[in-house]
Fold these 3 entries.
Entry 1:
Amino acid sequence: MKQILYFTKKLHQHTGKILYLNLVGMILISLFEGIGLFLIIPLLALTGVVNLESSEGSTITFISKMFSNIPNEIGLPMILGIYVVLLTGQSYFQRKQLILNAKIQQSFLRHLREKTYISLMQSNWGFFLNKRKTDISNTMTTELARVGTTTNLFLQFIASLAFTCIQIGIAFWLSVKMTLFVLFFGLILIYLSRKFIKKASSLGGATTKLSQTYHAGIIDHFNGIKDIKSNTLEEPRIKWFRNLCMQMEENVNELVKLKTASQLRYKIASASLITVFIYASIQLFQAQPAQLLLIVLIFARLWPRFSGIQSTLETMGSMLPAFDSLLRLQEESKASKEIKENVTYNSTHKLFIKEEIECNGVFFRYSTDETSSYALEDIHVSIPAKKMTAVVGRSGAGKSTLIDLLMGLNQPERGQIIIDRTPLTDENLLPLRRSISYVSQDPFLFNTSIRENLTMVFPDASDEEIWEALEFSASAEFVRKFSKGLDTLIGDRGIRLSGGERQRLVLARAILRNPSILVLDEATSALDTENEKKIQEALEQLKGKMTIVVIAHRLSTIRNADQVIVLDQGKVVQSGGFNQLAKEKRSMFSNLLRNQLEVN
Ligand SMILES: Nc1ncnc2c1ncn2[C@@H]1O[C@H](COP(=O)(O)OP(=O)(O)OP(=O)(O)O)[C@@H](O)[C@H]1O
């Protein structure tokens, strides 16, 4: 119930007045239908099937008298005419209301979609480190669709409530005693059925979890399909998938069982009640045939409303966990927001570093758990402006972590990142980020043309500038070989290119942005020696123009670096020029060098 109230509040906040307009529409539709119900009275009188004169003083007599002075030849077409007008009016408003319902539903959905997406985009890197991306994608697709269904159900629910209230009003007018009787049992049954709504909600929670697992499984398996196929891991994957599908099937079957069980209760109660009802009407209240007919009519119309309300509440109960998971995602991402309310990513200026980026006594660990170890410990380094700094060390030494801290993606637990003597804070974070071009170990390319992949960082780039960047990254030659050149489509994550071609293309993109800081994290690891040499020469030309930070395992690629920082187990163990470090015997750097010479 708490969830439903919260959902109502959110929907009301978003839609405002339109929700009331919708309610008025629903009331009008119900009124048309209710008035239509009364037409049965003069119709019965006209046909003479039942005698209405005997119900002296009742509502029935009052209505039948309204038509009694009209001759039969006019009366019948008149009643039928009114009926057609009412039905037309009702259908007209019903159409309007359906359109309005769809508008409310779609606009609420769009609002939630946009709000969540923007909130996610503005979250810091730490948020994404702790969150499964497949869960995010599941919430943004499957769960959002369930929220859409909930909105529709909710609007139907309000319609149902409005309709029921009007029907109750009409029923009261016709017979107070009988209506109280139906109402009393209806409310008792709804009260007794609360446990069905609770159970539906818990099954809905399970649906969310299963859907997350399903989504994650599909994405993981098809991302890793090459590994699965080449290691013949198909069977265990199929077994896992079958098992999950079975659980999903069971979950839905359980929901259907639950819904049908509560409906069964209503049907049995309905049959018993109507029997008692008719018996009481005839034996105790001495109801006349016309009145009896109307009472049965009221019962037949009112009773399904109660079971309808119950059924909608159950379905909503099973859907609301989706709304919950969406709101949780919104709240978590909002709590991790990395920019201020009035700042936009594009409105900030670029930062031009004049002197250095400094790490001053930096400590960092991925877990907030006090007992976990630090990925970086007491780091003091300086990255001089417009020079090339290389960061080296064994795998897991903390190289990428250091780069992430320098880019402001992660924040130190202790110590500071200082840019030209100004500490890195929320204020200068975006200007810093805007001045960086970063090429990661696993560069990302979009499933579109080469041109679009390049111009997304600089939409106004001319063909000349694009080719210049391609020449820089030693990509021009292979791009020219494609018959469609820059318009060649490169497939999912650039699957139609080789690993080295992908890296070179991402490098071209980084250069096209004309950054003042270029960060390369193992960016040339997939290149052959010839192409790597070309890129080294190109980087050499950038020295003095931009600050370059390179992480490299292949030490031959950093021979020209102005400074080398050697990390080991999260600590800086050496720093200085390449040749100077190479001369330091029994050091980590000479170890790394020796190992590579042995391998080569
Ligand atoms: N997202 C993460 N959550 C928890 N621990 C992490 C995470 N990323 C890295 N680590 C840990 O932090 C340490 C440093 O990792 P980092 O990726 O910085 O090393 P690296 O020197 O760049 O290694 P490589 O050369 O293999 O890329 C490692 O012990 C690693 O296990």
Note: The chain has a mean pLDDT of 84.
Entry 2:
Amino acid sequence: MQKLRHAVNGLSGSLRGPSDKSITHRALILGSLAQGQTYIKQPLASADITSTMNALRSLGVKFTVQAAGTIVVDSPGMANFARPENLVLDMGNSGTSTRLLAGVFAGLDLPVTMTGDASLSTRPMQRIITPLTNLGAEIQSVDGHLPLTISRGIQAQPIKFTLPLGSAQVKNTVLLAGLVAGVATTITDDFGTRDHTEQMLPAFGVTLEQVDNTFTIPDGQKLQATEIEVPADISAAAFWLVAGTIVPKSVIKLTKVNVNQTRAGILKVLNQMGATIKQQTIAAAEPMANLEIMAQPSLQPVKITAADVPTMIDELPIIALAATQANGQTIISGAQELAVKETNRITTVTTELKKLGADITATYDGFIINGPTNLAVAAPTTVDGHGDHRIAMMLSIAALITAGEVNLVDPESVVISYPTFFEDLEHLTQQA
Ligand SMILES: O=C(O)C1=C[C@@H](OP(=O)(O)O)[C@@H](O)[C@H](O)C1
Ligand SMILES: C=C(OP(=O)(O)O)C(=O)O
């Protein structure tokens, strides 16, 4: 349990936050498929990333960390991967590692069993089992959950797949299975889920043909080793975007934040709420921006609907906190995917924010939040991160504006995506 701090003098300072988790997973995987040495500059180091690296090591890939934090991926290439027998991989807490690597193993036709921690073992895997099975794979699972065994990979045939739900992980399962199996792969994504793999493939010498919401990767692709620089993660920056907005007297600068439009929904929402965020963008396949956030005492409520959700799925817990400070009713709908994350985030956000006095109601697909509420607790109050990193970080930001003592159960879960979260919080508060 950890006593959370208040921020009476606001937050101030500049931060280059942790690197993007989604982009780091993809750089490690694509770097491993390519023969030779791929250099990943400023990768994220976190528990979820370790899950991906450990799995790739079992294929004979070596990772060396250089002094500047660059990871050198040294791979025999996908055609020469080791093929260990009776392979069992522990994917820890990471949905992305599980679903993306299931695609890789199915494409390789390399039998594997994937296990995970208690949280990951409750998360739905039927969404990847169905498309892989339709492509000829044989997969055993416990009622659509881990442990999951791929006993036979996909069978060579051109792939045409229309994403049935707004999940980038499912899109990547099929994309990677097709890429590794060397078959032409056409995917339609009408949900606008994050497109980091599509943006990264050209650097590995793979060209995609994109028409509207459909892209095709031709058959027989051989990836070339390359160099990838990972920008800062907007899902981590989100905590400071909201903290800087709701904590009076704050001024925070965040540098080199990834603002890929399939990820940057939170910037749109905060702008609609009336937040003060200056943005200086550096154009690239993965555009980056320096952001300056200033406290904004008067915020407007917003309506977030299904079409917005994929661009801000992991940020909805912290957006819900911002909404408790807006003048009126915020409605977040179309976000039922939140129920199948590390926790049921519809329930955990609602239960824990209520303990701090928020007026928030859970719906089957989101929240109704009435603001503004003065988050105040009369007696020392214990809130619970439920082992979910995003809930623990959201509650730590909530405590900054809470009058009264707040203690957090499970602060350790920040290691999943943002191991230096509490150090960065100290850094920003100490300078005030
Ligand atoms: O592809 C990715 O890197 C991710 C996709 C999202 O999951 P879904 O695809 O399940 O929505 C997101 O919640 C997760 O943190 C990372
Ligand atoms: C949902 C998340 O990650 P994953 O699905 O990879 O476990 C997250 O980081 O919030």
Note: The longest strand covers residues 145-152.
Entry 3:
Amino acid sequence: MPCSATPSAPVSGYVAASTAQPVQLDLQQLSVNYGDVSAVKSVNLQLHQGEIGCLLGPSGCGKSTLLRTIAGFETLQQGRITMHGVQLAEPQHQLPPEQRKIGMVFQDIALFPHLTVAQNIAFGLRQQTKQQIQQRVSELLKLIGLPDTEERYPSSLSGGQQQRVALARALAPKPDLLLLDEPFSGLDATLKETLVPEVRQILQKENITALMVTHDQMEAFAIADRVAIMQQGEIHQFDTPYEIYHAPKTRFVADFIGQGHFVPALAFNHCEIKTNFVNASLQFEHGFDVETPIELLIRPDDLEHDDDSELTGTIISKQFRGTSFQYEIELPCGERALCIASSHHDHGVGEAIGIRLDLQHVIFFVKDNPGED
Ligand SMILES: Nc1ncnc2c1ncn2[C@@H]1O[C@H](COP(=O)(O)OP(=O)(O)OP(=O)(O)O)[C@@H](O)[C@H]1O
């Protein structure tokens, strides 16, 4: 695994308030296999009471398997799942899903079409008195912002409204944990933009501990207190969205999150690095050995357009984004990088423009030794 070397660590502007709470969900060394396929490998993850976590990673990295194993639909081969101190599963003993007090929300909504909204929400409350059920249903309808829909049927609601009812149905029995499997993926982008923060607020008001699977990093950042970045069954980093973006712990996380290009560089003394296009003097937490090959991650916001800069790059392609242009630039060393410029600076493809590297935020990785695993 590549080791990261970032300039002095940024101060997080994102506070995950709930990490002060007791641990609610605890996964220890969890491994799940399908025959020869090792889908989840020795995963450790803890969620605190009221915390919203997110599993994010490329297709096939094991997100759904991990979620389904917590729910009790898959069998673990190694490790332990504990919920507020009570063991739910280990290889010799696994509680069936219905005994785990876990609520689930799926991508395909799956409301009962022949039941009203109120009946759908009340579905898991059959052990309670009629009055208790009515009270919980109206409390939840108010919470999801659909107070006058008790008697309506799911087919008369929009996709976003249906997903909010599905959420209310899962929350109704006050589960110990809520699992959400790509709950927004069937909805259009505009609806998602409003629904995702709304769902975060609903979960926070209920003080529910939740774990969501998604492919979409913006969705993960908008809903989660902490995001787990997965690859090939392993968690690379479980951290706040801010830390994931600004202080990625592995090269995979740095590459997977956000946009950017890796540019080769070399340490030429203990605390300075050199690229083919700029010498940079940086404060490192840990210095490098001289001549250490380094990769420098340049994100679009690290490379600014500056007409007064002596350093220039050639525009390879451009994207208009309303408030800004994003230019793909060929650097003097032949490497490429993305550069953000005000949308008033409209330059053509092939044109050379002044660029300036903002060294405060650049992230470095020691380049993998090709001989290593
Ligand atoms: N029922 C199964 N039988 C055999 N292999 C499976 C089964 N389900 C998943 N896998 C394999 O396990 C690995 C993890 O799959 P999983 O569905 O958990 O990934 P994922 O990250 O949720 O993917 P996606 O984002 O595409 O849904 C993959 O290699 C997949 O092919």
Note: Residues 1-17 have pLDDT under 50 and may be disordered.
